[in-house]
Amino acid sequence: MNANHVRVRFAPSPTGGLHLGGVRTVLFNYLFARKYNGTFVLRIEDTDQGRFVPGAEEYIFDCLDWCGLSPDESVRKEGPYAPYRQSERKAIYRDYAEQLLESGHAYYAFDTPAELEQMRNDLRTPENPAPQYDHRTRGMMRNSLTLGEEETRRLILEGTPYVIRIKVPENETIHFHDMIRGDIHHETNVVDDKVLLKADGMPTYHLAVVVDDYLMKITHAFRGEEWLPSAPVHILLWQYLGWKAHMPQWAHLPLILKPDGNGKLSKRDGDRLGFPVFAMDWTDPKTGEVTTGFRERGFLPEAFVNLLAMLGWNPGIEQEVFSLEELCELFSMERVHKGGAKFDYEKAKWFNQQHIQRTDNARLATLVAPFFEKENITAEPEYLTRVIGLIKERCHLLPDFVTQGRFFFEAPAQPDLEAVKGKWSPGKTEFFRTWAASLDSIAPDHEALEASFTELATAKGIKKGDLMLPLRIMLVGGKFGPGVFDIVAMIGSAATQQRIEAALVQLA
RNA sequence: GCCGCGUUGGUCAAGGGGUUAAGACGCCUCCCUUUCACGGAGGAAUCACGGGUUCGAUUCCCGUACGUGGUACCA
Fold first, then answer.
1. A340 is near strand B: CB distance < 7 Å
2. Which ipTM value was assigned to this complex?
3. Do A332 and A387 fall into the same domain?
4. C-beta atoms surrounding A109 within 10 Å
């Protein structure tokens, strides 16, 4: 593996449903990797034992599989840098934390959570509502800097719980280049001494991400904008560990915001506004609460990926509908927007509609069948495929095929006869009885059917226009659907006759 | 509060010192369709504000405002 082989990673913590924004981060990683013939690594960030959620890891894999964004290396497909679960790499991090201790860039801290809270309370003022553990305060805390070597050694020998913190230097400016934002800088004086190794021996994200990115030879690190404020800590760590030359290139992705109001898009917003936020259905194992996903809502994975790609990125050409392959070719990190994007569900549905039109009917049939089953409608594949050809252009989501197509499978339960009742006449009843009776001898194609319909209408002296809508409502149940004679041809003469007769009875 | 990062129509956005400031979604009107959609043709609607720099700023610089993120032994 040569030195400039692109390696990227997505490092989720398995704590629940996979959010839109998470999938987009995966997507940008994936596209970047494909574009440069690189490797896409999935690393499980499970260093917080308190937040372990059973099933969450499996769910992440399922989502990525559904989206077609499967990783090249992961806990399921180990490459040369296993293990890929951070909890299984625990021992590794300690070594590096100790290295930092030795070089004086980190220190032991024995402060209990209560003592930390005490400090924050004592120091809190209106001007400084969130006092930090930093160069100003570390001198008044219980750590190896204030206690001295001997006392520190004694406390450790006694088994006193401790954490290891980075010692952030004073009066320095940390610069780094972001592929999307350009030069970014932070003053170290406002960066706090982040915990690197927790009391339980697990690393925090800050230590783990640097160590693993180095060890796994990650060349480009893409993550959400929420990580920007802690970037200086990571840069410092790359430097202190002596790996600065191997530091990946950074790109901090803009956030996906809620459509109304402000703030990051959350699961709650989806519930509130009526659209999915997770990729697939997620069942909270504790509460049993189900949050619906894009997949179950009736999105095609390629549409989901497409709409995500266009949230915060665009290729600068007029085309908006793309396959994953096209996206791989076109993608570039430099064209990612800096500002956050509000999620627009209407546009999301439009993307799905566009992809439905581009999908062949047989595949749609297999995707749509479960939605019919849910409604207890048995849809025979070949027939379903033909029905889909007739109704697909008016479908935005997969369940639309059921609402737009159920009358192909069963008579309308409650035809909206009110719409024609007022203008009904015995002559019309007679017309329909006569026409229905003639159906068996007419070729089942829409032209022949329409010709006979027109001919009989003329013979009876009734305007064809006064008969079309009634026929539609008898067969479909309402004012919608494809050409009415296409429907007759599709459902056949027996069903047509039955529906006409049933309606006639009601109109009598 | 402090720090970081942002800001082109309602939304996604192209553009970037001189333009009639693209396109898409949504909305409205019309056409097509003896239904509803699809499709087509139009329309309303935008460079946050204030200072500079400049012959000329939406574009560059500085402020302000606003938004957003962070400020955990969570990621």
1. yes
2. 0.95
3. no
4. 23
